[in-house]
Amino acid sequence: MRAMIDTSALIGVIPDDVISSVDDFAASYVVRAELLRGQRRWERDPAMQQRAGVRAQLVSAFDDLGTFWRPFGVAESEAYSRLAAASEAAVRSMDAFIAAHAIAAGVPLLTADRGFTRFDDLDIRYV
Questions:
Q1: Strands 109-111 and 69-70
Q2: pLDDT of 1
C-alpha cells in the first residue's frame, strides 16, 4: 500500500494517480463511515438528493474493490492511544482515528485537510 486516503481526498477531485492505481491505496472504515454520514444527511434534503446518489455510488465502487476499506484493529488502537495521550485536543474528531490508522500501517496519509498537521509522527501528502 502506497498510502491511506482521508475523507477529504475522496470528496473532492480524486487524484489521477489514485484512480489509475487504486489497488495501491486504502482507506479506513472510519473514512467510509464519514462518507456515509454525509450521504445520509444529504438524503434528508430534497435539494441534495443527487449528491447523495453520487456519494452512494462512490462508496459502492470502493466496496466492490474488496480490500480498499481497512478495519481498525489492535495496531491502530495502539497508535490512537499514543495520539490521544499526547494531546486530548488533537483527538476530538474522527481525524485522530484516521491518522492512527495511517501511522499503524506505516504509510503516508493522502489528504486535503491541513488540520492533520496536529498529529505527531503522521506522514502527510496533500492533494
A1: unpaired
A2: 94
